[in-house]
Structure to design on (78 residues):
């Protein structure tokens, strides 16, 4: 029988962990457990009255340098 991995929390870290686990060479069964009604944790998207989409969260992301570029790639994967 294969392995099962339970990821607690559907914030950006839990989503990234689930994504990378599911893409492993021998991926386990991944179960994502989230306690709220939506995924994303502190990060969420809202649409303004004019149709513009705003990304909200407790911290800003500074896309400077290689580390910032890799962080931004996490958002493009979902």
């Amino acid at each position: 029988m294969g392995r099962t991995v339970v990821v607690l929390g559907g914030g950006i870290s839990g989503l990234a962990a689930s994504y990378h686990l599911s893409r492993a060479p021998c991926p386990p069964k991944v179960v994502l457990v989230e306690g709220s009604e939506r995924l994303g944790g502190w990060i969420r998207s809202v649409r303004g009255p004019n149709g513009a989409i705003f990304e909200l969260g407790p911290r800003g992301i500074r896309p400077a340098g290689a580390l910032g570029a890799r962080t931004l790639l996490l958002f493009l994967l979902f």
